[in-house]
Amino acid sequence: MSLSGEQLKALARQGAAQRYQELQDELAALTATFPELARGGKRGKRGKAASSAPSAAGRRRRSMNAAQRKEVSERMTRYWASRRAEKAAGATAKSKGRRRKAAKKTVEAKKAE
What we know:
113 residues; mainly alpha; 0% strand
């Protein structure tokens, strides 16, 4: 007995519908047993839910061409030079202030004696 193409297609559709219902029933049983699965929570090694942010492996970092790298290098060189200059200027001003305060304390201590 040979089946026509339409009959074969109808039987395949019935089989697919039956399998789909079986899968739906199995999914319902699993979510009843493990409710966190219904929330879509993927669990890591330590049982913590995975974050919804894209993983580091999935993200791509933009690369810079040589001109961009050179520009960043020059900008950062200027930045750190200015930071060192500010720190040096601040250190001399602070140290002078400390010396003055220390000297003032010793003069006051001598007067008190």
